[in-house]
Amino acid sequence: MTLVSIKNLTRVFDVSKPWLNRVIERLPKRMLTAVSDVSFDIEERSVYALVGESGSGKSTIGKMVVGLLKPTEGTVEIDGTDLMKASGSEIDRIRSDIQMIFQDPFASLNPRWKVRNIITEPVAARGGDTKGLAEKLLEQVGLSAQDAGKFPHEFSGGQRQRICVARALASEPRLIVCDEPTSALDVSVQAQVLNLMSDLRDEFGLTYLFISHDLTVVQHMADRIGVLYLGRLVEEATPDELFSNPQHPYTKMLIEAAPKMDGYGREVTPPQGEIPDPINPPTGCAYHPRCPIAIARCSAERPPLATKGKGRVACFRAGEMT
Amino acid sequence: MTDFPQPDAVKQAQDPGRMSRLWASDFAYAFRRSPVAIGATAVVLVLVLAAIFAPLIAPHDPFNPATLNLMNGFTPPGTPNAFTGDTFWLGTDDQGRDVFSTILYGLRISLFVGFSAVLLALIIGVTLGLIAGYAGGWAETIIMRVADVQLTFPAILVAMLIFGVAKGITPPEYRNQMAIWVLIIAIGLSDWVQFARVVRGATLVEKNKEYVQAARLIGRTGPAIMLRHILPNVLSPVLVIATISLALAIIAEATLSFLGVGAPPTQPSLGTLIRIGQGFLFSGEWWILLFPSITLLALALAVNLMGDWLRDALNPRLK
Amino acid sequence: MNTPVLSVDALSVEIPTRHGLLKPVDQVSWDIAKGEILGVVGESGAGKSMTGNAVIGLLDRPARISGGQVRLNGTRIDNLTPAQMRKVRGKQIGMVFQDPLTSLNPLLTIGDQLSETIETHLAVGRTEARKRAIAALDEVGIPAAKDRIDSYPFEFSGGMRQRVVIALALCAEPSLIIADEPTTALDVSVQAQVIALLKRICRERGAAVMLITHDMGVIAETADRVAVMYAGRLAEIGPVAQVLGAPRHPYTHGLMGATPLASKGRKRLAQIPGAMPRLGALPNGCAFHPRCPKAQDKCKSDPRPTVQDGAGRAACWFPMEDA
Question: DSSP characters for A274-311?
Fold first, then answer.
């Protein structure tokens, strides 16, 4: 069953200078298209990962899914309901179905609040019963019930991220959006948090939208991976297919450029060029200026995301790169 | 300083061992190691206690005409009066009021006006600053432009303007009674801008932090997020400004009273006492001017030093 | 064998605080030879950046070197005055930090910054310095270096800025380069470019490189030898294939197990229980023993100094057997 259905999602940010400066300096408005026409579905009880470099729009998509940002165009449907068109009571119900885990465990907990109040806030905000809830959740994420009376500064980064997980679980959600949940953590702590997230998924039947720039983490966690480049979904496949047989030249480059733990003395031919300015993206396929197999059509026409095998890919020459 | 929530006190509210933990904190450690901070706090504490307990400490009630003896007028400090034989340690003024007692009562009014004005400025400034920082858009533009315009006038002029307008609209028979409250409003309204600016800046930083996003995600409304999440995290700079503002408010009150537009002679503040005293400076009765002036100086200086120290102690960048 | 370019011998750093003396770096020793890249890896709080700062004499007070020696090409540099050290730093040691923006003066063109460094350290004239600056930018792969030399740092992208910083570190022809998390702020594709650049430069110039990073993948692909630090001490050092492929110290072993790897599939990751201890509360004996699966009573009381073990050194009483 499909839990989240994202259709033609687009988000444009106005990054112009203030009105007065624009008038005086005669500058045009500057619009940044962070997400451009992205569509995908997330199956219930699965992990869908969005992977991409900076400027790929992966965090913007995450914020639109949880309702922190409004889409400029397109829709996000959770369990068949569009959050932007829902009635008050529906919004309340959907809200308790969605939670989020953030990247920075130091900024995501209010430093002046006790852990107990932080964890139970999603329930307390709706007037629910919070007695003993924090203690129960803390034990579920591997901390002790006594920690409920402490303040966030008494915990290490990994423990804080566990508290964030506990808060996300409080309202018994079905979907948790994880925005780079382990990027700020050390390797040994990252393993603890990733294992915890896998365990909780099995235990509660959770669905994750997992956002990351780290290919190995994504490969480890995801059931399905969407690769983003400059706000566009360029390829979608299962981890096995994606890593063994990438169809899009960008995916292939990304996989090859990522440092390998067992790649002692590996000599990589580094990829060419850098990510272009998202305010003035290249015409046609956004990757064509860096693409080794680009043809004339790539710069004129944006390739649609077409089904290929079990996945989808947006490339006129999909799979032709060796 | 008990009027303001200390950040450590906020953090450790309801904790059983909060006093011992406060004592062990870096904040308390820095305090114990700073002679300036200890000295300034001691001076402020002594003056505040003296003001609070003025009716118990003061040898005379300077506002009760029944206890006054005009014969005691112009008694120099420490010497017995030629007619009555009474001795006054800081002398008496022209009406025979004990200068020490008038200072204690004047201190009361100065501190009351100072604290109240800062509290008013703090409430207005913090509220507007939070709204400007969190809501942004038109609310921010209007609030911050009004603040900019007000900053182009000296605060004392703004206070005098408000005082003048208030005086114009209050009926004459209430004027003396209202004077203190008008003073508080005048100083408070002239001083909210810096609170608003600092709180707006801090709010802009806090509102982009992930814990605020987490609260929005849950469905918390704007006012709830501002009050419960952001406010406790912007209080440290507010505390520093409040302390420095207190010194400025006390001086502003003294200036207004000195100029004759502040506390009436029937309820003299330190500023009023200085205004009365300067009339006798050249006729030899120096003590009527000198002792209130020293008190004001000590108070303003000590509060300012406390504020400076707080700013350094609470500034994480300097640690 | 020749004198190593950098020789760190039993280096210790201490920070006096009101809670007592902290030892962020404790008895760390290693050599780096000409043309060699030593990767220094560890989690946050391991003391790797502090070691780098101690080597280049840039410890922030009140931290200070409390013991040991640092030799650059055979000459002691840990006891120099700040003025002497500044000269050594500019001329003989090049530095590359995580955030390229803080290493560049935003108000000067990159050409001015490069020429200034070259003039100061190589005793050449204005025009010659400018010529060499363009050559340095060419070498680090900045396209159209001749036209871009008069640009300001903000006109460059993040990856290009890091190239400029590397050019700046190289332009006085130092014998040692210290790179502290040089690719952490960069995207994967740009990171690959910067790593390739560092490797090429090390090979062509014969400079010694001390590469500090938390990323085991970067170490694996870049370093010749790797030093693993834990709680301020050296846990293990050796050739990269040996340390990462067949680690001797249980901590390194745990780190490798905790890292997601393509070849491991979606198996559960191995966990190291607990977290790195705080500097103020280091356990007695081996600092890793509370988290170590192989710890015995001996580990709780006596830390083992690093001992020769195959081609490397490890600081463990009960090292892992070869798998």
Answer: -PPPTTSPPSSSTTGGG-TT--HHHHHSPPP-EEETTE
Q: Is the pLDDT of residue B137 over 70?
A: yes
Is residue B190's pLDDT more than 60?
A: yes
pTM over 0.90: no
Strand partners, C208: C176
- Hey, where are the domains in chain A? 2-229, 234-258+276-322
| Interface residue of A65, A112, A118 to substitute, partner B, most B CBs within 10 Å | A112
| SS3 label, residue C134 | helix
Question: Is there a cis peptide before residue C62, judged by omega within 30 degrees of 0?
Answer: yes
Contact B108, B68 (CB under 8 A): no
Please enumerate in sequence order all residues whose Cβ is within 8 A of that of B277, keeping only pairs 6 or more positions apart, or say none.
B93, B288, B289, B290, B292, B293
% residues pLDDT > 90 (chain C): 29
**Residue C319, phi then psi, degrees to nearest 5:** -65, 160
CA distances from C273 to A290, C256, C270, C316 (A): 44, 14, 10, 18
> Which of A132-146, B88-102, C93-107 has the highest mean predicted lDDT (pLDDT)?
A132-146
Determine, for residues C221 and A263 on separate chains, whether the beta-carbon distance falls below 8 Å: yes
What is the DSSP code (8-state) at residue B316?
Answer: G
Q: Quick: pLDDT tens for A134-192.
A: 999 999 999 999 999 999 988 988 899 999 999 999 989 999 999 999 988 888 889 99
Read off the pLDDT band of B16 (50, 70, 90): very low
**Residue to substitute from A264, A279, A287, interface C, most C β-carbons within 10 A:** A264
User: How high is the pLDDT of residue B34?
Assistant: 87
Q: Give CA–CA dist B303/B107, Å, rounded.
A: 14
DSSP type of residue C34: T
- Measured in angstroms, the CA of A250 and the nearest CA of chain B are apart by 31
* CATH class assigned to A2-229: alpha beta
In the block, tokens 């009562």 appear at B105
What is the widest separation between alpha-carbon atoms in chain B? 80
Q: What is the pLDDT of residue A295?
A: 92
Which residue from A189, A198, A259 is facing C217, i.e. has the nearest CB? A259
User: What residue ranges define each of the domains in chain B, with the CATH number in brackets?
Assistant: 27-318 (1.10.3720.10)
A260 CA to chain B: closest CA distance, Å? 32
Please give the average per-residue pLDDT across C192-221, as a whole number: 89
Band (B268; pLDDT cuts 50, 70, 90): confident
Bridging pattern class, strands A232-237 and A311-313: antiparallel
Q: What is the mean pLDDT of residues A238-267?
A: 88
DSSP state of B70: G
CB within 8 Å of C322: residues ≥ 6 apart: C246
Q: If you count residue pairs, one on A and one on C, with CB atoms under 8 Å apart, how many are there?
A: 131
Q: Partners of A32 in the beta sheet?
A: A13
With a CB cutoff of 8 Å and minimum separation 6, the contacts of C184 are C98, C213, C214, C215
